[in-house]
């Protein structure tokens, strides 16, 4: 049985990029490119004319934002959207609002094919108004297009963080993060379920602001810990403490945070700053 045809619109301001995407899509069974355009106005016109199922959307369109397409189209008419861009600045915003996928140029055949297959599955399951509203929320989340920071909180705390490694985007669930340590301009996400560590170009302050304080605490200028992973506090020499996690990891604890952590643990705080 042949797959259902995905009627697809390509939006990119560079003709060679549009041609390359069209040629790659031609190799994917069950995809029909209904039009290929290079501006917001042309994209809106094509959506009205063709009502495509899938939208491959570049973000930077000769001084325009591709997200203006998402903002303008009525939710019920908004196609499933895959962001295709040469820049990784927009990944967090895209994943926070559950854009279906995020492809970095140059687009690889395998990644594009996988994204199209996910779009096909999503099309069979999605409720168009709900998905459209989540995609439209991307505009609310990003105050300045291209900013290299997590957008200011508007809909609660982070539950996922996209990680870019070797041209691939991986989504990390916040609940699976064991602890986070500073590493220069990066933060290293240490995972519960494996020994893997994922670097992200996000400041510790931004992460502290966006993580739920009921689950995470910044216990040192270079360390944030998931509270449920703490086994006990270990007193060292003098008034120095460290944190020991359930897996045996040892983390630094600043003197200023001892009382906060003792309060969370239900221990009567003492003055450790004398």
Give a short account of the largest sheet: 5 strands, parallel
The CATH topology annotation of the largest domain reads as: Rossmann fold
Radius of gyration: 22 Å
Helix content: 25-40%
pLDDT averaged residue by residue:
80
Quickly give the structural class. Answer: alpha/beta
Q: What letter string, H or E per element, gives the SSE order?
A: EHEHEEEHEHEHHEEEEEHEEEEEH
Name of the top-level CATH class of the largest domain: Alpha Beta
The geometry reads as elongated
Order the strands across the largest sheet as they lie in space.
Answer: 2-1-3-6-7
For the terminal residues, how far apart are their CA atoms? 75 Å
How many domains? The number is 2
According to CATH, the homologous superfamily of the largest domain is Response regulator
Low-confidence stretches: 142-154
- In CATH, the architecture of the largest domain is 3-Layer(aba) Sandwich
- Total beta strands: 17
Sheet-strand content, in percent, reads: 25-35%
Our count of helices gives 8
Features:
274 residues, alpha/beta, Rossmann fold, OB fold (Dihydrolipoamide Acetyltransferase, E2P), 2 domains, 5-stranded parallel sheet, 5-stranded antiparallel sheet, 8 helices, 17 strands
């Amino acid at each position: 049985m042949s797959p259902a045809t995905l009627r697809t619109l390509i939006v990119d301001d560079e003709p060679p990029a549009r041609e390359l995407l069209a040629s790659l899509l031609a190799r994917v069974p069950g995809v029909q490119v209904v039009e290929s355009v290079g501006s917001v106005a042309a994209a809106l016109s094509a959506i009205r004319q063709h009502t495509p199922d899938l939208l491959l959307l570049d973000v930077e369109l000769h001084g325009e934002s591709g997200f203006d397409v998402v903002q303008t189209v009525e939710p019920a008419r908004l196609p499933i959207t895959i962001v295709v861009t040469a820049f990784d600045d927009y990944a967090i915003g895209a994943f926070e609002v559950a854009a279906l996928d995020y492809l970095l140029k140059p687009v690889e055949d395998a990644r594009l094919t996988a994204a199209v297959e996910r779009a096909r599955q999503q099309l069979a399951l999605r409720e168009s108004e709900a998905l459209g509203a989540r995609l439209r929320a991307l505009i609310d989340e990003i105050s300045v297009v291209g900013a290299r920071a997590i957008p200011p909180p508007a809909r609660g705390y982070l539950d996922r963080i996209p990680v870019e490694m070797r041209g691939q985007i991986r989504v990390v669930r916040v609940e699976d993060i064991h602890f986070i340590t500073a590493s220069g301009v990066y933060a290293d996400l240490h995972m519960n379920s494996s020994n893997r560590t994922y670097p992200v170009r996000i400041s510790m302050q931004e992460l502290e602001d966006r993580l739920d304080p009921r689950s995470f605490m910044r216990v040192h200028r270079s360390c944030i810990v998931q509270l449920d992973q703490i086994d006990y506090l270990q007193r060292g020499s003098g008034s120095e403490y460290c944190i020991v996690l359930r897996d045996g990891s040892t983390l630094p604890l600043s003197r200023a945070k001892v009382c906060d952590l003792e309060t969370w643990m239900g221990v009567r705080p003492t003055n450790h700053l004398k």
